[in-house]
Write a structure and sequence with these properties.
The complex is a heterodimer of chains A (243) and B (300). With 243 residues, chain A is an all-alpha fold. Chain A is 81% helix and 0% strand. Chain A has one domain. Chain A is globular and about 60 Å long. The two termini of chain A are 22 Å apart. Chain B is elongated, with a radius of gyration of 22 Å. In chain B, α5 runs parallel beside α6. Chain B has 10 helices and 14 strands. Chain B has 2 domains: 217 residues, Rossmann fold; 58 residues, Alpha-Beta Plaits. In chain B, the strands form 3 sheets. Chain B has a 6-stranded mixed β-sheet with strand order 6-7-8-3-9-10, sandwiched between helices. With 300 residues, chain B is of the alpha/beta class. The chains are: A mainly alpha (243), B alpha/beta (300). Chains A and B meet through α1, α3 and α4 of A and β6 and α3 of B.
């Protein structure tokens, strides 16, 4: 039952051009743009190639899991989730499969952007670094996957775009995924460090640049995990009552 | 009748939305194997009844059981397949994939080819489910309802918004499934549709049972004539017991009596209260049926 549902969801996504373009093509193009347009050269260019590779992989992965939440809104509004409730599939299983789908769909964005880093931008890291970066980028997206589920069960078709905009672009920009936090005014820098987007990127950056993982990143990400998890449970309960 | 022979049973079921009693004390038993039409105008409580039958929301009062167990239990066991109103098919999925997906959820599904053939979808299996005509999409919903091989098939206004040809195709698909001994409950607001496709018609209005019988019995009840008179401020008391009268509707100071024997009704009226404003009109099945389901009407 679970495997069949997961397969259906993944097939549907593979045909969804908005998803493919928004979460794989866009981050890839932005990565290539950020790293090849500017006047950067030599050492600075190499640093930018690594830094932006991680930013854009993270940006794409977050986009993918939030898109997954957006689909829940559509299916709630359209009545498909009600339809599923008339079948033997337990409602909680539907959410579980959604979470699993999120974890799968986050992968292509990460792999494609990192691949472009190696193949097009000449990023060289040792095998141990790659493994840790890929694992951290993948598992670090879990809080955002929960945020996607919370939005999926809490938003309506009307409020979805604004919620996604705030969550996605707002947290990405303020968290330093588009431009490094060092370029921000002090106050914004402080805010940025408290956002999950920054902690998420910083875990991988610290491996890539070898400055040692900051415990605060785990703390921040863990705190957001709890917050988004709580929101998901609350939104799910509410939507179940209203169904 | 033993519990296993009863597909669905409502006992004193009440559902309120705010001050509105959408379903108001419903008692109804559906034996296994019947094809039952739930007939009533918009707002009669049909969808509410169906939603409670499917466990989508609980009744405020009374009990609903399926095959002698609780609704949730029967749904979990895969004994029910449903076609809901306005359930949009998910985007980017093919017809055959959706059928396979639903089949995989149920413990004892029908073979894929069987599902597709019954719903007249064999040639559409590879088509994107979100790019079909209204009639085709409705047959996909029907296929998803029956794919799991449920004992009870529940269809909420399955032909709403379909054209004549699509309706005809839909009902022939439904007959193919019901003909194999399955229990089917469908709702409709067309008397003709209920008459053509059900063994039994249950008429509800204002959340209550108004009539229950074979299509023949129901038609006999609603057939006949309408006798309208002015009340002249004397109220409607006693009108429902006049000879031939099966339903009384009062609007303002005028009453409409649905009668199976208009001559006897008018004769009795002459004795009882005179014939002020008398008007006798012929049988219009739809109008008669509306009279039957009017909230003020006396249950037939």
């Amino acid at each position: 039952m679970t495997a069949g549902y997961l397969r259906l969801e993944l097939r549907r996504l593979a045909r969804d051009r908005a998803y493919l373009i928004g979460t794989i093509v866009m981050p890839l193009l932005m990565y290539l743009l950020f790293t090849n347009l500017g006047a950067l050269s030599g050492q600075a260019k190499q640093v930018a190639a690594v830094y932006a590779m991680i930013s854009m992989a993270a940006f794409g992965a977050i986009g993918a899991v939030l898109n997954n939440g957006g689909q829940i809104v559509e299916e709630r509004a359209g009545g498909w989730l009600r339809q599923l409730r008339t079948t033997p599939m337990p409602p909680l299983r539907v959410v579980t499969v959604r979470a699993m789908t999120a974890m799968v769909v986050a992968l292509p964005s990460i792999v494609v952007v990192c691949g472009a880093g190696v193949l097009l931008n000449g990023v060289r890291l040792d095998a141990g670094q790659w493994v840790r970066i890929l694992v951290l980028l993948w598992l670090g997206v879990i809080p955002f996957a929960l945020l996607g589920l919370a939005i999926g069960h809490g938003a309506t078709a009307r409020t979805l775009p604004i919620m996604n905009m705030l969550a996605y672009l707002g947290m990405a920009v303020l968290g330093g995924l588009w431009m490094p936090l060092d370029t921000f005014p002090a106050i914004l820098r402080t805010v940025g460090r408290l956002l999950p987007t920054h902690a998420y990127g910083d875990l991988a950056w610290s491996i890539a640049f070898g400055y040692g993982i900051a415990g605060t990143d785990f703390l921040v990400l863990g705190a957001w995990l709890v917050i988004f998890g709580g929101l998901t449970v609350a939104a799910y309960r509410r939507s179940g009552r209203a169904a | 009748m033993p519990d296993t022979m009863i597909a669905a049973a409502f006992h004193g079921v009440v559902k309120r939305f705010g001050d509105v009693r959408a379903v108001d004390g419903l008692d109804l038993t559906i034996p296994a194997g019947q094809t039952v039409a739930l007939l009533g105008p918009n707002g009669a409580g049909k969808s509410t009844t169906i939603n409670m039958l499917l466990g989508l929301f609980p009744p405020d009062d009374g009990t609903v059981t399926l095959y002698g167990t609780g609704v949730a239990e029967a749904v979990r066991a895969g004994r029910v397949g449903a076609m809901l109103q306005e359930a949009k098919l998910p985007a980017h999925a093919r017809v055959g994939e959706l059928v396979d997906f639903v089949r995989a959820i149920y413990p004892d599904p029908l073979p894929r080819a069987d599902v597709l053939a019954t719903a007249r979808l064999t040639d559409l299996a590879g088509r994107p489910a979100d790019r079909l005509s209204g009639g085709q999409a409705q047959r996909v919903r029907f296929a998803l309802a029956l794919a799991g091989g449920p004992d009870l098939l529940v269809l909420d206004e399955p032909t709403a918004a379909l054209d004549v040809e699509a309706r005809r195709e839909f009902w022939s698909a439904m007959h193919a499934y019901a003909g194999r001994g399955h229990t089917v409950l469908f709702s409709t607001h067309y008397l003709e549709e209920a008459d053509d496709n059900a063994d039994r018609i249950v008429v509800i209005g204002g959340g209550r049972l108004r009539a229950d019988g074979t299509p023949e019995q129901i038609k006999r009840t609603v057939a006949g004539r309408t006798v309208a008179i002015d009340l002249d401020g004397r109220g409607a008391a006693g009108l429902d017991t006049l000879p031939g009268v099966v339903a009384v509707t009062v609007r303002g100071d005028r009453a409409w009596l649905r009668s199976t024997d208009a001559d006897a009704t008018v004769t009795a009226l002459v004795h009882d209260r005179g014939l002020a404003g008398l008007e006798v009109t012929g049988a219009d099945l739809e109008e008669a049926f509306l009279a039957l389901t009017e909230k003020e009407g006396t249950p037939a």
